[in-house]
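To illustrate the input format used throughout this study, we show a single complete record. The first block contains the structure-token representation of the backbone; no residue identities are included at this stage. The design step must infer an amino acid for every position from geometry alone.
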């Protein structure tokens, strides 16, 4: 009797095992992954995913075991998150401390810029508890551009201080010399002429500082109008004729007519005049400076190219990448002689960028230079493109 009961129990157990196996195969076919059980702490509050998707900064939600439950697109784009792991160990460690102690914490970090390195990213990370189930919210804001702007501002202030002190100091010394030479008419005329030169240089510097400041604070495309490049070229060339005549330099214009761009006419005239004056200042006497306009057809957007070509001293290859920096001069001695401030090409660069374009340069030492200002054409007023062979 006992043996029969034992055999029946074994049979029932076997049937239950087979039935459970078959039910398991129906629910989870061969080859299918079984999803891990959903833990209560892994469930996010309603709306959190939507908020994370809308954030421009990098945002990551960590589970109690430091797995990534959700992350904003920016977190993946910057390489903070891969799969379900937060790759920045200092942030993982900070998340653990916040989980244990409670208060939110903030830290500044430098992160590598991609797999190839380069200038690191300067970020500010804020880590805070999210709910009461051990989840942690990590917000990372990229401050690299702000740090770069601060550095540029510090350099700019230092350069301005130096550049202003030079003509002001020179005028003070000349004024003392003028007083001492009050009984010598020839010396008075000589010192007065030098003072006038320094005053003009100081006036140019202040004006270009004002122009550069306006460019940085003004977006010409917010209230843009159609600007005829024919008028821009004519005006800029006319304003440079006196300087060209002083060196017997011939100004020549040509190219396609009737092209228009959207932007600010005054800014464009100033930028082109700076290119022309730069060509005149760095060209020998009795040479030629040519200004040409052409239309460049592109699959994305048609562009206008305004080129200024000279027969001057050219630019050394090692200097080309720096010539658009503020106050940078290839030949400081020549710049002082011509009254150059080192801001003209920086103004051109800012003007081009503000109009959605760019400025480029080609140059060979002792063979001249060509500066090209490329600007998007006004598509509403484009003339028909010239046919091939015409």
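Output of the design step:
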């Amino acid at each position: 009797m006992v043996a029969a009961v034992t055999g029946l129990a074994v049979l029932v157990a076997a049937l239950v095992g087979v039935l459970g196996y078959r039910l398991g195969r129906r629910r989870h076919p061969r080859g299918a992954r079984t999803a891990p059980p959903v833990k209560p702490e892994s469930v996010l509050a309603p709306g959190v995913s939507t908020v994370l998707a809308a954030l421009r900064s990098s945002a990551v939600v960590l589970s109690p075991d430091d797995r990534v439950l959700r992350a904003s697109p920016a977190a993946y784009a910057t390489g903070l998150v891969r799969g379900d792991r937060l790759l920045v160990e200092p942030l993982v460690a900070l998340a653990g401390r916040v989980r244990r102690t409670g208060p939110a914490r903030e830290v500044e970090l430098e992160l590598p810029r991609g797999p190839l390195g380069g200038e690191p990213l300067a970020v500010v990370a804020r880590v805070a508890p999210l709910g009461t189930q051990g989840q942690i919210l990590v917000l990372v804001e990229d401050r690299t551009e702000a740090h770069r702007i601060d550095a540029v501002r510090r350099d700019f202030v230092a350069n301005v201080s130096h550049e202003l002190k030079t003509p002001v100091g020179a005028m003070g010394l000349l004024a003392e010399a003028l007083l001492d030479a009050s009984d010598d008419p020839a010396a008075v005329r000589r010192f007065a002429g030098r003072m006038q030169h320094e005053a003009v240089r100081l006036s140019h510097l202040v004006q270009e500082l004002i122009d550069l400041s306006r460019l940085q604070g003004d977006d010409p495309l917010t209230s843009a109008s159609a600007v005829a490049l024919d008028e821009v070229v004519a005006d800029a060339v006319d304003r440079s004729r006196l300087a060209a005549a002083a060196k017997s330099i011939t100004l020549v214009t040509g190219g396609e007519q009737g092209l228009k761009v959207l932007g600010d006419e005054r800014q464009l005239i100033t930028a082109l005049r700076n290119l022309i004056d730069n060509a005149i200042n760095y060209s020998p006497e009795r040479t030629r400076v040519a200004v040409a306009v052409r239309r460049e057809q592109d699959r994305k957007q048609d562009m206008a190219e305004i080129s200024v070509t000279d027969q001057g001293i050219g630019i050394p290859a090692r200097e080309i990448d720096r010539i658009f920096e503020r106050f940078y001069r290839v030949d400081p001695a020549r710049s002082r002689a011509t009254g150059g401030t080192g801001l003209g090409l920086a103004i051109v660069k800012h003007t081009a960028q503000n109009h959605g374009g760019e400025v480029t340069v080609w140059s060979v030492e002792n063979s001249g230079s060509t500066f090209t200002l490329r600007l998007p054409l006004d598509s509403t007023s484009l003339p028909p493109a010239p046919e091939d062979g015409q």
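Structural context for interpreting the output: Residues 1-42 have pLDDT under 50 and may be disordered. The longest strand covers residues 121-130.
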